[in-house]
Amino acid sequence: MIPVVLAPGLLCDDRLWSAVTPLLAGTIVTVDFGEDDTIKAMAERILAEGPERFVLAGFSMGGMAAMVAAARAPGRIAGLILIDTHAEPETPDRSERRLRQIATADAGGFARLVREELKPLYFAEPQAHEAERRLVFDMALEAGSLQFRRHVQALMLRPDPTPLLPALTMPVTVVTGEADGLAPPEATRRLAAAVPHGRLVLIPDCGHMAPLEAPAAVAAEINALCRQLEPT
Protein backbone atom coordinates (compact mmCIF):
# COMPACT_ATOMS: atom_id res chain seq x y z
CA MET A 1 0.00 0.00 0.00
CA ILE A 2 1.24 3.47 -0.86
CA PRO A 3 2.56 5.39 2.20
CA VAL A 4 0.41 8.06 3.84
CA VAL A 5 1.64 11.36 5.27
CA LEU A 6 -0.60 13.05 7.86
CA ALA A 7 -0.41 16.83 8.38
CA PRO A 8 -2.13 18.30 11.48
CA GLY A 9 -3.96 21.55 12.04
CA LEU A 10 -3.68 24.54 14.34
CA LEU A 11 -2.79 23.61 17.94
CA CYS A 12 -2.75 19.91 17.06
CA ASP A 13 -0.07 17.24 17.17
CA ASP A 14 0.00 13.57 16.18
CA ARG A 15 -2.64 12.78 18.79
CA LEU A 16 -5.15 14.28 16.37
CA TRP A 17 -4.78 11.06 14.35
CA SER A 18 -4.81 8.66 17.32
CA ALA A 19 -8.13 7.05 16.34
CA VAL A 20 -7.40 7.16 12.59
CA THR A 21 -3.95 5.57 12.34
CA PRO A 22 -4.95 2.13 13.73
CA LEU A 23 -7.43 1.90 10.84
CA LEU A 24 -4.97 2.72 8.07
CA ALA A 25 -3.48 -0.04 5.97
CA GLY A 26 -0.10 1.32 4.86
CA THR A 27 3.03 2.97 6.19
CA ILE A 28 2.25 6.21 8.03
CA VAL A 29 4.36 9.35 8.48
CA THR A 30 3.11 12.16 10.71
CA VAL A 31 4.59 15.64 10.48
CA ASP A 32 4.80 18.28 13.22
CA PHE A 33 4.54 21.98 12.39
CA GLY A 34 5.48 23.18 15.86
CA GLU A 35 8.57 25.11 14.69
CA ASP A 36 7.15 26.43 11.41
CA ASP A 37 5.88 29.97 11.01
CA THR A 38 4.60 30.07 7.41
CA ILE A 39 2.40 27.83 5.29
CA LYS A 40 5.30 27.58 2.83
CA ALA A 41 7.58 26.25 5.58
CA MET A 42 4.95 23.68 6.52
CA ALA A 43 4.71 22.57 2.89
CA GLU A 44 8.50 22.27 2.74
CA ARG A 45 8.46 20.13 5.89
CA ILE A 46 5.90 17.80 4.33
CA LEU A 47 8.12 17.32 1.27
CA ALA A 48 11.29 16.95 3.35
CA GLU A 49 9.83 14.30 5.66
CA GLY A 50 7.60 12.47 3.21
CA PRO A 51 8.75 9.43 1.23
CA GLU A 52 9.42 9.48 -2.51
CA ARG A 53 5.73 9.07 -3.42
CA PHE A 54 2.80 9.18 -1.05
CA VAL A 55 -0.81 10.07 -0.32
CA LEU A 56 -1.04 13.28 1.68
CA ALA A 57 -3.85 13.87 4.18
CA GLY A 58 -3.99 17.39 5.63
CA PHE A 59 -6.35 18.64 8.31
CA SER A 60 -7.46 22.29 8.49
CA MET A 61 -4.25 24.37 8.47
CA GLY A 62 -2.41 21.21 7.45
CA GLY A 63 -4.73 20.94 4.47
CA MET A 64 -3.68 24.41 3.36
CA ALA A 65 -0.03 23.38 3.60
CA ALA A 66 -0.86 20.15 1.79
CA MET A 67 -2.24 22.05 -1.20
CA VAL A 68 0.96 24.09 -1.45
CA ALA A 69 3.13 20.96 -1.17
CA ALA A 70 1.10 19.14 -3.83
CA ALA A 71 1.31 22.07 -6.24
CA ARG A 72 5.10 22.19 -5.76
CA ALA A 73 5.70 18.43 -6.15
CA PRO A 74 2.78 16.85 -8.04
CA GLY A 75 4.98 13.96 -9.13
CA ARG A 76 5.56 12.89 -5.52
CA ILE A 77 2.08 13.36 -4.09
CA ALA A 78 -0.09 10.72 -5.71
CA GLY A 79 -3.32 11.78 -4.05
CA LEU A 80 -4.70 14.32 -1.60
CA ILE A 81 -7.18 14.02 1.25
CA LEU A 82 -8.16 17.51 2.40
CA ILE A 83 -9.98 17.30 5.72
CA ASP A 84 -12.00 20.14 7.24
CA THR A 85 -10.08 22.74 5.24
CA HIS A 86 -10.79 25.29 2.52
CA ALA A 87 -9.09 27.36 -0.16
CA GLU A 88 -10.79 30.67 0.55
CA PRO A 89 -8.51 33.72 0.68
CA GLU A 90 -8.01 35.55 3.96
CA THR A 91 -10.59 38.29 4.54
CA PRO A 92 -10.28 41.51 6.57
CA ASP A 93 -12.91 40.28 9.02
CA ARG A 94 -11.07 37.02 9.58
CA SER A 95 -7.75 38.79 10.02
CA GLU A 96 -9.31 41.20 12.53
CA ARG A 97 -10.63 38.27 14.54
CA ARG A 98 -7.24 36.54 14.44
CA LEU A 99 -5.46 39.68 15.65
CA ARG A 100 -7.87 39.94 18.56
CA GLN A 101 -7.23 36.30 19.44
CA ILE A 102 -3.46 36.84 19.36
CA ALA A 103 -3.84 39.85 21.67
CA THR A 104 -5.92 37.80 24.09
CA ALA A 105 -3.37 34.99 24.10
CA ASP A 106 -0.45 37.40 24.56
CA ALA A 107 -2.23 39.03 27.51
CA GLY A 108 -2.34 35.73 29.39
CA GLY A 109 -5.77 34.64 28.27
CA PHE A 110 -4.73 31.74 26.05
CA ALA A 111 -6.37 28.96 28.08
CA ARG A 112 -9.59 30.96 28.33
CA LEU A 113 -9.48 31.66 24.58
CA VAL A 114 -9.18 27.98 23.80
CA ARG A 115 -11.85 26.96 26.30
CA GLU A 116 -14.45 29.66 25.60
CA GLU A 117 -13.93 30.69 21.97
CA LEU A 118 -12.10 28.01 20.01
CA LYS A 119 -13.35 24.73 21.47
CA PRO A 120 -17.06 25.58 21.02
CA LEU A 121 -16.45 25.84 17.25
CA TYR A 122 -14.75 22.48 16.91
CA PHE A 123 -17.43 19.86 17.55
CA ALA A 124 -20.92 19.39 16.13
CA GLU A 125 -22.34 18.51 19.54
CA PRO A 126 -20.76 20.64 22.28
CA GLN A 127 -21.68 18.17 25.00
CA ALA A 128 -20.61 15.04 23.08
CA HIS A 129 -17.12 13.58 22.58
CA GLU A 130 -15.99 14.48 26.09
CA ALA A 131 -12.67 12.63 25.82
CA GLU A 132 -11.96 14.13 22.40
CA ARG A 133 -12.78 17.63 23.62
CA ARG A 134 -10.38 17.17 26.52
CA LEU A 135 -7.71 15.97 24.09
CA VAL A 136 -8.16 19.07 21.93
CA PHE A 137 -7.76 21.27 25.01
CA ASP A 138 -4.66 19.39 26.15
CA MET A 139 -3.02 19.60 22.72
CA ALA A 140 -3.71 23.33 22.56
CA LEU A 141 -2.29 24.07 26.01
CA GLU A 142 0.82 22.01 25.31
CA ALA A 143 1.33 23.84 22.00
CA GLY A 144 1.08 27.12 23.88
CA SER A 145 0.45 30.73 23.04
CA LEU A 146 3.73 31.30 21.17
CA GLN A 147 2.98 28.52 18.71
CA PHE A 148 -0.55 29.85 18.43
CA ARG A 149 0.81 33.26 17.49
CA ARG A 150 3.17 31.78 14.86
CA HIS A 151 0.50 29.69 13.23
CA VAL A 152 -2.24 32.31 13.29
CA GLN A 153 0.13 34.76 11.65
CA ALA A 154 0.98 32.10 9.08
CA LEU A 155 -2.72 31.77 8.29
CA MET A 156 -3.16 35.53 8.07
CA LEU A 157 -0.21 35.99 5.73
CA ARG A 158 -0.74 32.99 3.47
CA PRO A 159 -1.10 33.79 -0.22
CA ASP A 160 -4.45 33.32 -1.90
CA PRO A 161 -4.42 29.58 -2.73
CA THR A 162 -6.92 29.86 -5.58
CA PRO A 163 -4.27 30.00 -8.36
CA LEU A 164 -2.77 26.72 -7.09
CA LEU A 165 -5.90 24.66 -7.45
CA PRO A 166 -5.76 23.88 -11.20
CA ALA A 167 -2.27 22.43 -10.63
CA LEU A 168 -3.65 19.80 -8.25
CA THR A 169 -4.16 17.23 -10.99
CA MET A 170 -3.90 14.19 -8.72
CA PRO A 171 -7.09 12.63 -7.27
CA VAL A 172 -8.35 14.88 -4.47
CA THR A 173 -10.91 13.88 -1.85
CA VAL A 174 -12.31 16.76 0.19
CA VAL A 175 -13.75 15.53 3.50
CA THR A 176 -15.69 17.78 5.85
CA GLY A 177 -18.31 17.58 8.55
CA GLU A 178 -21.76 18.74 7.58
CA ALA A 179 -21.76 20.91 10.73
CA ASP A 180 -18.24 22.30 10.27
CA GLY A 181 -18.42 26.03 10.97
CA LEU A 182 -14.74 26.72 10.22
CA ALA A 183 -14.54 24.96 6.85
CA PRO A 184 -18.25 24.92 5.99
CA PRO A 185 -19.70 22.68 3.27
CA GLU A 186 -20.25 25.58 0.87
CA ALA A 187 -16.51 26.38 0.97
CA THR A 188 -15.48 22.76 0.60
CA ARG A 189 -17.84 22.35 -2.35
CA ARG A 190 -16.04 25.20 -4.06
CA LEU A 191 -12.69 23.57 -3.28
CA ALA A 192 -13.72 20.18 -4.65
CA ALA A 193 -15.13 21.81 -7.79
CA ALA A 194 -11.99 23.90 -8.40
CA VAL A 195 -9.52 21.01 -8.65
CA PRO A 196 -9.47 18.89 -11.81
CA HIS A 197 -10.32 15.57 -10.12
CA GLY A 198 -12.07 16.60 -6.92
CA ARG A 199 -14.56 14.59 -4.92
CA LEU A 200 -16.51 15.88 -1.92
CA VAL A 201 -17.45 13.74 1.07
CA LEU A 202 -19.75 15.24 3.71
CA ILE A 203 -19.87 13.47 7.08
CA PRO A 204 -23.24 13.82 8.84
CA ASP A 205 -23.40 14.87 12.50
CA CYS A 206 -19.78 15.99 12.38
CA GLY A 207 -18.15 19.36 13.02
CA HIS A 208 -14.62 20.58 12.40
CA MET A 209 -12.75 17.75 14.11
CA ALA A 210 -13.52 14.88 11.74
CA PRO A 211 -10.36 12.89 12.65
CA LEU A 212 -11.66 12.77 16.24
CA GLU A 213 -15.42 12.89 15.66
CA ALA A 214 -15.57 10.42 12.77
CA PRO A 215 -12.21 8.62 12.56
CA ALA A 216 -13.62 5.55 10.79
CA ALA A 217 -15.03 7.71 8.00
CA VAL A 218 -11.75 9.61 7.61
CA ALA A 219 -9.69 6.41 7.59
CA ALA A 220 -12.05 4.81 5.06
CA GLU A 221 -11.51 7.69 2.63
CA ILE A 222 -7.72 7.56 3.04
CA ASN A 223 -7.66 3.79 2.51
CA ALA A 224 -9.98 4.06 -0.49
CA LEU A 225 -7.72 6.58 -2.20
CA CYS A 226 -4.66 4.46 -1.46
CA ARG A 227 -6.33 1.40 -3.02
CA GLN A 228 -7.35 3.49 -6.03
CA LEU A 229 -3.70 4.43 -6.59
CA GLU A 230 -2.29 0.91 -6.29
CA PRO A 231 -0.92 -0.55 -9.53
CA THR A 232 -3.32 -2.97 -11.22
Q: Describe it for me?
A:
- With about 230 residues, this protein is α/β, with parallel strands linked by helices.
- The chain contains seven helices and six strands, in the order ββαβαβααβαβαα.
- The chain has helices at about 40-50, 60-70, 90-120, 130-155, 185-195, 210-215, 215-230; strands at about 5, 30, 55-60, 75-85, 170-175, 200-205.
- The protein has a six-stranded parallel β-sheet with strand order 2-1-3-4-5-6, with helices on both faces.
- The mean pLDDT is about 95.
Query: What would you report as the Rg, rounded to the nearest angstrom?
Result: 16 Å
Q: Give the CA-based shape.
A: globular
User: Approximately how much helix is present in the residues?
Assistant: 40-55%
Mean pLDDT: 95
Secondary structure layout:
Layout: E1 4-7, E2 28-30, H1 39-49, E3 54-59, H2 61-72, E4 77-83, H3 92-118, H4 130-157, E5 172-177, H5 185-194, E6 198-203, H6 210-213, H7 215-228
Parallel strand pairs: 1-2, 1-3, 3-4, 4-5, 5-6
List the keywords.
single chain, 232 residues, alpha/beta, 6-stranded parallel β-sheet, 7 helices, globular
Brief account:
It is built from 7 helices and 6 strands; from the N terminus they run E-E-H-E-H-E-H-H-E-H-E-H-H. By secondary structure, the chain is an alpha/beta fold.
